[in-house]
Amino acid sequence: MPEVSSSSAVSQHGSVSPRISAAQPYLRPPGASPFHFRPPRRRSWWAAGLVVLCLLAVGSSLHGDTSDGLSQPGAAAGPSKVTAGDAIGDVLAAEGMPQDVTRLVAERRDDDLHLELHFVDPISPADSGLANALYGFIDLDTDQLASTGELATVDYLSDRVSGLGSDVLVDLGTYSAVDRRVDVVDAAGGEVLARVPTTFETRSLALDVPLAVLGGDGLLSTVAAVGNLLAMTDVVPDGGFLATIAGEEVVLGGGRFRLDVTWQDFAGASGAGTLVFQSDDSAVFWFFDANNWELMVKVIDGCAFNDRFWVFSAATTNVEFNVRITDLQTGTVRSYRNPLGVSAAAVTDTAAFATCSAGGV
């Protein structure tokens, strides 16, 4: 039987939404949801306990819309709406009536972060008492730094790995028909920061979180874990996280390798690659259109195999682009260029960085 933590978060309307602190299946204390608020677990503790994690999540269907920037004034411009798709039928557990997610949507609307979850089958609010009642968490990384914040629900309660540093949680299990809202909770201490309006449709839900509640500059990363009274049944994305907008800097390998991507087209226009999606060792970019992805780059720890960090990349373009990767611990730089007019070839450099011995690696 999983161990149950004694800590819990109490919402403003008096209900308690506890979270278990061990693996599946979930243990549901009487009158409580199956998700138990964990005691604080810092990234340093997690990294020491999980030595090798491979975050290869490029299969998630993420799409962007360049209509607006999901940022506060002065922040980097980028798509206001992004979507992480999820395969139908990929549920993690079959207990009860499994909740099967099809997509997670994040969009800035004026001064709010708009979030949507869509499902294969009909859903009901947590307080409905029905078999398809929805429980779960949407984790938000408000500073887009994997090295800060708490473990995301996905990482904590399943074998899936997001690599996201959770700063804020949206607790779907705290929905009440009285005010039609759910709790937004500080991930570290369990403090309820706000209750936000939530709308349930037959196969979807939508909610809006004020950016003022989230703090930061409005640049966010997110991942969702949902289930029923018996188990967590699905996560979206299946690995990694959904980044609402590219930040100023893309860093892979636990903060060790900085990745810079630039491009130039046939008309002479040029710019920096815009991040679509990032896991700990992989990043996907678009150049001209948020719906048209161009490049994926991976930095892989191959130290145990040949005492090297490896660089792999693949692109679907014939414009000029340059990939520059910097080992921030040693200053070593590797650059990869595709000439204008040449269909990009794959890069499989298994001897890229002979720096495994640096920084205690």
Topology of helices and strands:
Elements lengths: L42 H7 L11 E5 L15 E5 L15 E9 L2 E8 L15 E7 L8 E2 L1 H5 L7 E2 L1 E9 L4 E6 L5 E9 L3 E7 H4 L6 E7 L4 E5 L4 E3 L6 E3 L4 E8 L5 E3 L1 E5 L3 E8 L2 E11 H4 L1 E8 L4 E8 L5 E6 L8 E7 L8
Antiparallel strand pairs: 1-2, 2-3, 3-4, 4-11, 5-8, 5-12, 6-7, 8-9, 9-10, 10-11, 12-13, 12-14, 14-18, 15-16, 16-17, 16-22, 18-19, 19-20, 20-21, 21-24, 22-23
Could you give the count of β-strands? Answer: 24
Architecture per CATH nomenclature, i.e. the level-2 architecture of the largest domain: Sandwich
Distance between the termini: 37 Å
Shape call: elongated
How many helices? The count is 4
Give the CATH level 1 class of the largest domain: Mainly Beta
Q: Find the structural class using helix and strand composition.
A: mainly beta
Describe the structure.
The chain contains four helices and 24 strands. It is elongated, with a radius of gyration of 21 Å. Helices cover 6% and strands 42% of the residues. The protein is mainly beta. The strands form three sheets. It has a 17-stranded antiparallel sheet that branches. Strands 15, 16, 17, 22 and 23 form a five-stranded antiparallel sheet that branches. The protein has two domains: 201 residues, Immunoglobulin-like, CATH 2.60.40; 111 residues, no CATH class. The N terminus is likely disordered. Strand 16 and strand 17 form a beta hairpin.
